[in-house]
Design brief:
The complex is a heterodimer of chains A (about 150) and B (about 80).
Chain A: E1 2-4, H1 10-16, E2 24-31, E3 35-36, E4 39-48, H2 50-67, E5 70-78, E6 80-83, E7 87-95, H3 98-115, E8 118-124, E9 129-131, H4 135-148
Parallel strand pairs in A: 1-5
Antiparallel strand pairs in A: 2-7, 3-4, 4-6, 4-8, 5-7, 8-9
Helix pairs in contact in A: 2-3, 3-4
Chain B: E1 3-9, H1 11-17, E2 21-26, H2 31-37, H3 39-42, E3 52-55, E4 58-60, E5 71-75
Parallel strand pairs in B: 1-5
Antiparallel strand pairs in B: 1-2, 3-4, 3-5
Classes of the chains: A alpha+beta (about 150), B alpha+beta (about 80).
Chain lengths: ~150, ~80
Protein backbone atom coordinates (compact mmCIF):
# COMPACT_ATOMS: atom_id res chain seq x y z
CA UNK A 1 0.00 0.00 0.00
CA UNK A 2 1.27 3.43 -0.87
CA UNK A 3 -0.01 6.95 -0.28
CA UNK A 4 1.21 9.72 -2.55
CA UNK A 5 0.62 13.38 -3.23
CA UNK A 6 2.03 12.99 -6.75
CA UNK A 7 0.27 11.90 -9.94
CA UNK A 8 -0.25 8.13 -10.09
CA UNK A 9 1.81 6.72 -12.98
CA UNK A 10 -0.34 3.71 -13.83
CA UNK A 11 1.93 2.42 -16.62
CA UNK A 12 4.96 2.36 -14.36
CA UNK A 13 3.05 0.68 -11.53
CA UNK A 14 1.67 -1.98 -13.87
CA UNK A 15 5.16 -2.73 -15.18
CA UNK A 16 6.34 -3.28 -11.59
CA UNK A 17 3.82 -6.12 -11.25
CA UNK A 18 5.27 -8.04 -14.20
CA UNK A 19 5.94 -11.70 -13.44
CA UNK A 20 6.93 -14.51 -15.82
CA UNK A 21 4.25 -16.74 -14.25
CA UNK A 22 1.51 -14.16 -14.81
CA UNK A 23 -1.09 -14.79 -17.48
CA UNK A 24 -3.39 -12.00 -16.34
CA UNK A 25 -3.28 -8.47 -15.04
CA UNK A 26 -6.36 -6.69 -13.68
CA UNK A 27 -6.21 -3.02 -12.87
CA UNK A 28 -8.71 -0.58 -11.40
CA UNK A 29 -8.46 3.20 -11.51
CA UNK A 30 -10.78 5.48 -9.57
CA UNK A 31 -11.06 8.90 -11.23
CA UNK A 32 -12.30 12.27 -10.05
CA UNK A 33 -15.65 12.99 -11.73
CA UNK A 34 -17.28 16.34 -12.19
CA UNK A 35 -20.54 15.62 -10.37
CA UNK A 36 -21.88 13.95 -7.26
CA UNK A 37 -25.45 13.73 -6.00
CA UNK A 38 -26.65 16.52 -8.25
CA UNK A 39 -23.77 18.89 -7.43
CA UNK A 40 -21.20 20.11 -9.94
CA UNK A 41 -17.80 19.26 -8.53
CA UNK A 42 -14.76 21.40 -9.39
CA UNK A 43 -12.07 19.53 -7.47
CA UNK A 44 -11.64 17.12 -4.64
CA UNK A 45 -9.45 17.14 -1.56
CA UNK A 46 -8.33 13.89 0.09
CA UNK A 47 -7.30 13.73 3.72
CA UNK A 48 -5.41 10.57 4.63
CA UNK A 49 -4.20 9.40 8.00
CA UNK A 50 -1.19 7.70 6.48
CA UNK A 51 0.17 5.62 9.40
CA UNK A 52 -3.06 3.64 9.66
CA UNK A 53 -4.03 3.81 5.98
CA UNK A 54 -0.75 2.08 5.12
CA UNK A 55 -1.15 -0.52 7.86
CA UNK A 56 -4.78 -1.29 7.00
CA UNK A 57 -4.07 -1.22 3.25
CA UNK A 58 -1.28 -3.77 3.64
CA UNK A 59 -3.64 -5.90 5.70
CA UNK A 60 -6.27 -5.78 2.92
CA UNK A 61 -3.69 -6.80 0.30
CA UNK A 62 -2.60 -9.71 2.51
CA UNK A 63 -6.24 -10.79 2.85
CA UNK A 64 -6.63 -10.70 -0.95
CA UNK A 65 -3.52 -12.86 -1.32
CA UNK A 66 -4.90 -15.34 1.24
CA UNK A 67 -8.25 -15.57 -0.54
CA UNK A 68 -7.08 -15.72 -4.14
CA UNK A 69 -3.99 -17.26 -5.78
CA UNK A 70 -2.41 -13.96 -6.70
CA UNK A 71 1.16 -13.39 -7.85
CA UNK A 72 1.47 -9.69 -7.09
CA UNK A 73 -0.89 -7.02 -5.81
CA UNK A 74 -0.46 -3.34 -5.08
CA UNK A 75 -2.61 -0.32 -4.27
CA UNK A 76 -1.83 3.40 -4.39
CA UNK A 77 -4.08 6.18 -3.07
CA UNK A 78 -3.65 9.92 -3.56
CA UNK A 79 -3.80 12.59 -0.88
CA UNK A 80 -4.23 16.35 -1.19
CA UNK A 81 -6.05 18.36 -3.86
CA UNK A 82 -7.07 16.59 -7.09
CA UNK A 83 -8.56 17.95 -10.29
CA UNK A 84 -11.34 16.43 -12.43
CA UNK A 85 -10.10 13.42 -14.39
CA UNK A 86 -7.16 12.63 -12.13
CA UNK A 87 -6.61 9.12 -10.85
CA UNK A 88 -7.35 9.04 -7.11
CA UNK A 89 -6.76 5.36 -6.49
CA UNK A 90 -5.18 2.50 -8.40
CA UNK A 91 -5.25 -1.25 -7.72
CA UNK A 92 -3.24 -3.73 -9.76
CA UNK A 93 -3.13 -7.51 -9.49
CA UNK A 94 -1.33 -10.18 -11.49
CA UNK A 95 -2.11 -13.88 -11.42
CA UNK A 96 -1.86 -17.00 -13.57
CA UNK A 97 -5.47 -16.68 -14.80
CA UNK A 98 -7.99 -13.85 -15.13
CA UNK A 99 -10.61 -14.95 -12.59
CA UNK A 100 -8.41 -14.50 -9.55
CA UNK A 101 -6.96 -11.25 -10.89
CA UNK A 102 -10.47 -9.76 -11.27
CA UNK A 103 -11.62 -11.12 -7.89
CA UNK A 104 -8.59 -9.93 -5.93
CA UNK A 105 -8.68 -6.50 -7.60
CA UNK A 106 -12.37 -6.14 -6.74
CA UNK A 107 -11.79 -7.28 -3.16
CA UNK A 108 -9.00 -4.77 -2.61
CA UNK A 109 -10.83 -1.71 -3.98
CA UNK A 110 -14.06 -2.57 -2.14
CA UNK A 111 -12.23 -2.96 1.20
CA UNK A 112 -10.06 0.11 0.66
CA UNK A 113 -13.16 2.25 0.21
CA UNK A 114 -14.79 1.12 3.44
CA UNK A 115 -11.82 0.56 5.77
CA UNK A 116 -9.02 3.05 5.12
CA UNK A 117 -8.95 6.26 7.17
CA UNK A 118 -9.39 8.50 4.13
CA UNK A 119 -11.88 11.35 3.72
CA UNK A 120 -12.76 13.51 0.78
CA UNK A 121 -13.98 17.05 0.62
CA UNK A 122 -15.75 18.13 -2.54
CA UNK A 123 -15.37 21.70 -3.76
CA UNK A 124 -18.42 22.74 -5.79
CA UNK A 125 -18.92 25.14 -8.68
CA UNK A 126 -21.07 27.45 -6.56
CA UNK A 127 -18.22 27.98 -4.10
CA UNK A 128 -19.26 25.81 -1.16
CA UNK A 129 -17.64 22.56 -0.13
CA UNK A 130 -18.53 19.50 1.85
CA UNK A 131 -17.12 16.29 3.29
CA UNK A 132 -18.44 13.25 1.48
CA UNK A 133 -20.16 10.94 3.85
CA UNK A 134 -19.68 7.52 2.39
CA UNK A 135 -22.29 5.57 4.33
CA UNK A 136 -24.14 4.53 1.20
CA UNK A 137 -20.99 3.41 -0.62
CA UNK A 138 -20.06 1.48 2.51
CA UNK A 139 -23.46 -0.20 2.55
CA UNK A 140 -23.07 -1.15 -1.12
CA UNK A 141 -19.59 -2.51 -0.44
CA UNK A 142 -20.82 -4.66 2.42
CA UNK A 143 -23.75 -5.98 0.39
CA UNK A 144 -21.49 -6.84 -2.53
CA UNK A 145 -18.95 -8.53 -0.25
CA UNK A 146 -21.67 -10.58 1.41
CA UNK A 147 -23.07 -11.66 -1.94
CA UNK A 148 -19.65 -12.89 -3.07
CA UNK A 149 -18.85 -14.64 0.22
CA UNK B 1 -11.50 7.49 38.05
CA UNK B 2 -10.60 10.26 35.67
CA UNK B 3 -8.19 9.43 32.85
CA UNK B 4 -6.03 11.73 30.80
CA UNK B 5 -6.73 10.94 27.14
CA UNK B 6 -5.19 12.53 24.06
CA UNK B 7 -7.92 12.88 21.43
CA UNK B 8 -7.21 13.44 17.75
CA UNK B 9 -9.97 14.62 15.41
CA UNK B 10 -10.01 14.05 11.64
CA UNK B 11 -11.75 15.67 8.65
CA UNK B 12 -15.23 16.97 9.62
CA UNK B 13 -14.59 16.20 13.31
CA UNK B 14 -11.46 18.38 13.28
CA UNK B 15 -13.32 21.25 11.61
CA UNK B 16 -16.12 21.04 14.15
CA UNK B 17 -13.79 20.85 17.15
CA UNK B 18 -11.63 23.65 15.76
CA UNK B 19 -8.54 21.68 16.71
CA UNK B 20 -6.73 18.56 15.52
CA UNK B 21 -5.77 17.38 18.97
CA UNK B 22 -6.52 17.99 22.62
CA UNK B 23 -5.99 16.34 25.95
CA UNK B 24 -9.14 15.65 27.94
CA UNK B 25 -9.65 14.38 31.46
CA UNK B 26 -12.64 12.10 31.43
CA UNK B 27 -14.15 9.40 33.58
CA UNK B 28 -14.76 6.93 30.76
CA UNK B 29 -14.39 3.15 30.47
CA UNK B 30 -14.43 2.62 26.71
CA UNK B 31 -13.78 4.39 23.41
CA UNK B 32 -17.56 4.52 22.92
CA UNK B 33 -17.99 6.31 26.24
CA UNK B 34 -15.43 8.88 25.15
CA UNK B 35 -17.18 9.41 21.80
CA UNK B 36 -20.45 10.07 23.59
CA UNK B 37 -18.80 12.36 26.14
CA UNK B 38 -17.21 14.45 23.37
CA UNK B 39 -20.38 14.80 21.25
CA UNK B 40 -20.27 18.59 21.41
CA UNK B 41 -16.60 18.57 20.31
CA UNK B 42 -16.79 16.31 17.20
CA UNK B 43 -20.40 17.36 16.59
CA UNK B 44 -21.38 13.99 15.19
CA UNK B 45 -24.94 12.84 14.98
CA UNK B 46 -23.62 9.74 13.22
CA UNK B 47 -24.35 6.47 14.96
CA UNK B 48 -21.13 4.97 16.32
CA UNK B 49 -21.25 2.21 13.71
CA UNK B 50 -20.61 4.63 10.86
CA UNK B 51 -17.59 6.16 12.54
CA UNK B 52 -14.32 4.43 13.31
CA UNK B 53 -11.87 4.63 16.16
CA UNK B 54 -8.21 3.83 16.69
CA UNK B 55 -6.42 3.59 20.01
CA UNK B 56 -2.66 4.17 20.10
CA UNK B 57 -2.48 3.88 16.29
CA UNK B 58 -4.27 0.52 16.09
CA UNK B 59 -7.78 0.18 14.67
CA UNK B 60 -10.08 -0.52 17.60
CA UNK B 61 -13.79 -0.78 18.29
CA UNK B 62 -16.13 1.17 20.49
CA UNK B 63 -15.96 -1.37 23.31
CA UNK B 64 -12.16 -1.06 23.56
CA UNK B 65 -11.26 -0.14 27.15
CA UNK B 66 -9.29 3.07 27.63
CA UNK B 67 -6.40 3.60 29.96
CA UNK B 68 -4.82 6.70 31.38
CA UNK B 69 -2.43 8.17 28.77
CA UNK B 70 -4.08 6.55 25.71
CA UNK B 71 -4.30 8.38 22.40
CA UNK B 72 -7.70 8.00 20.74
CA UNK B 73 -8.22 8.83 17.07
CA UNK B 74 -11.80 9.67 16.12
CA UNK B 75 -12.63 9.04 12.46
CA UNK B 76 -15.82 10.26 10.77
CA UNK B 77 -17.31 7.93 8.11
CA UNK B 78 -14.52 7.20 5.64
CA UNK B 79 -14.74 7.96 1.93
CA UNK B 80 -11.67 6.71 0.12
CA UNK B 81 -11.48 5.89 -3.55
Amino acid sequence: MRITSNRIDVGKLRDELADPAAGAYAGFEGWIRNHNEGEQVLRLEYEVYAPLALKEGDRIIREARDRFPVLRAECVHREGMLEIGECAVWVGVTSAHRDEAFSACRYIIDQVKIRLPIWKKEHYRDGHSGWVNCERCAAHGHAAAEKRA
Amino acid sequence: MSKSITVRYFASFREHAGTAEEVVDADVATAGDLFAKLANRHGSAEPLGHCKVAVNDEMADWSTPLEDGDTVLLFPPVAGG
